[in-house]
Design brief:
By secondary structure, the protein is mainly beta. Helices cover about 0% and strands about 50% of the residues.
Length: about 180
């Protein structure tokens, strides 16, 4: 049995014991913002609030490092570790930021509008990117809005390892996460 670690809307990381149902707040972000993504890598947890990334010790949840407070907020959402790099969705900027273990940005990938061939006026947050996963050598990026309007059909953009677009396809309505199982 392992404890479940949750990133919460209240800016907390909560540890929940699935057997005893006991829970406790193990970290509170300093910026009073929602915590969005959480991922373990080696002996650390990497947690994102809307405007900052945190590196915590996995054993005692103490703060090791944090990024600057980004303003305006990039609106971090989910993130995943692949080959020693943390791929993080930057929802408000339609980007993927890639961090190393020390929370230094090593790459930035722009995600184009859902329908770049159409001459429409997109809002700034045109994709509302929520998650990124890698499967069989390809990156799959969740586009919460696949059309030119907010609150619409969702989709997935598929990229090769160098972030060249392979394809896009529609998938659900207002989706926020997906996984290969």
């Amino acid at each position: 049995m392992a404890d479940l670690v949750l990133a919460t809307e209240g800016g907390q990381v909560v540890q929940f014991n699935t057997e005893t149902k006991a829970h406790s707040v193990v970290f509170q972000c300093s910026d009073d913002e929602a915590m969005m993504g959480i991922a373990r890598y080696r002996d650390h947890l990497y947690v994102a609030s809307l405007s900052r990334m945190y590196k915590l010790r996995a054993d005692d949840h103490s703060l090791v490092k944090q990024t600057e407070f980004y303003s305006p907020s990039p609106d971090f959402h989910q993130h995943q570790w692949y080959d020693g790099l943390l791929y993080t969705t930057i929802t408000k900027r339609n980007q993927i930021w890639v961090y190393n273990e020390e929370l230094e940005i090593v790459r930035v990938h722009d995600i184009e509008p859902p329908m770049p061939e159409k001459k429409v006026r997109y809002q700034k947050n045109y994709n509302h990117i929520n998650n990124i996963i890698r499967h069989e050598g390809k990156f799959y990026v969740n586009l919460n809005w696949l059309t030119k309007v907010q609150y619409a059909a969702s989709g997935v953009a598929v990229f090769d390892e160098d972030f060249r677009l392979i394809e896009k396809f529609e998938y659900g309505w207002e989706t926020h996460d997906f996984q290969f199982i």
